[in-house]
Design a protein that fits this description.
The structure is a single chain. The chain has 13 helices and 12 strands. With about 425 residues, it is of the alpha/beta class. It folds into 2 domains: about 240 residues, 3-Layer(aba) Sandwich (Peroxisomal Thiolase, Chain A, domain 1), CATH 3.40.47.10; about 150 residues, Thiolase/Chalcone synthase (Peroxisomal Thiolase, Chain A, domain 1, 3-Layer(aba) Sandwich), CATH 3.40.47.10. It has a 10-stranded mixed beta sheet, with helices on both faces. A two-stranded antiparallel sheet has the order 2-3. Helix 11 links the parallel strand 9 and strand 10.
Amino acid sequence: MAERKVAVTGTSMITPLGLDTEQTWEAVIAGRSGVGPITKFDASELPTQIAAEVRDFEPTKYFSKKYLRQMDLFIQYAVAASYMALENAGLHEDRPPAERTGVYVGSGLGGITTIESTHLAMREKGWRHGISPYFVPALIINLAGGQISIFQGFKGPLMSHVSACSTAAHSIGEAYLAIRYGRADVMLAGGTESTITALSVGGFAAARALSKRNDEPTKASRPFTKSRDGFVMGEGCGLLVLEDMDRAKARGATIIAELVGYAANSDAHHVTAPSPNGEGAQACIRLALEDAGVSGDAVGYINAHGTSTAADQIESSAIRQVFGAHADKLQVSSTKSMHAHLLGAAGSVEGALCCLALQRGVLPPTINLDDPDPSCDLDYIPHEARRVEVEYALSNSFGFGGTNACLLFKRAP
């Protein structure tokens, strides 16, 4: 079978900026922050007391209350997002063939909320009364995709990739390959996360990875600045509907963008830090361009990994090394400055934003870029979105353990 082109025909986002794609997009383009004081638990004893929480999510809009015990919040986000993504793609009623439709949805940490609450309940009530029979299905990562496949009746490839902050990008990239090489015709792909708990926030704080700008939460996520002091934890879900291009055209689907390149590799350097010279990131970007058969000079926008940590300088340097003189013409932003770091869901939310930027001719900004770091010397679209049409957009995702993923999207005709 000849290699097939892959269209993006649907998106969905549940983020700290909004409960669907349009709300999130509007907030991003307006340059609003979703960061605030933590309300999900008492964080007063922690050095970091801020996060980007999803607010006012109502899962019973998508499934009945009886299912809530079976799903940690990260799974609830995923199932809800699947309905929105299919509707956005025009597939909610016009169902694709079940055996040719797959689900690749992963998570970085999975059901840590369920683990924490169940551990406390077991200590208080004992094993018999403290542990639900749904405990394991509610927390394991593969049930994010598993529950989507059950609710939607999809019987194609089903996997949950787990690769820290690269999870969602790997999920999308591998789903792209499944369609490209004929293993499926339609794929729901992305990542989901809900880790704003005492244990996970405390863990990242202990690793000195989080911002301590508690008095200015909306200013805390500030990639590429001299004053950045760590990332801000967020939560949510992003899904893309990927579809065989010929199939999408035949049914008259709106093609949001085309996914044309994907690469994955490893730094093989350190459990948390990227290789100092950005060697792995450089190689991954080059491989994605090579996969697409596209020159670096064709890329107009990059949604950077840009976490508001020391690694920002390494990513900036890697981009400059790959693109050479063209780096000065690139427009780069980190939307984490607004929705914060969604961990295992980051790559799919950022990938969806890339697709919308290509479709709508608007590039998201980097907010809080008040004191640029001289070692981060690219055009980061400071403060305000730009109305600019570009042909190709790159989305970078780099995770703990040195795991890297890059996705290259093309503007639809």
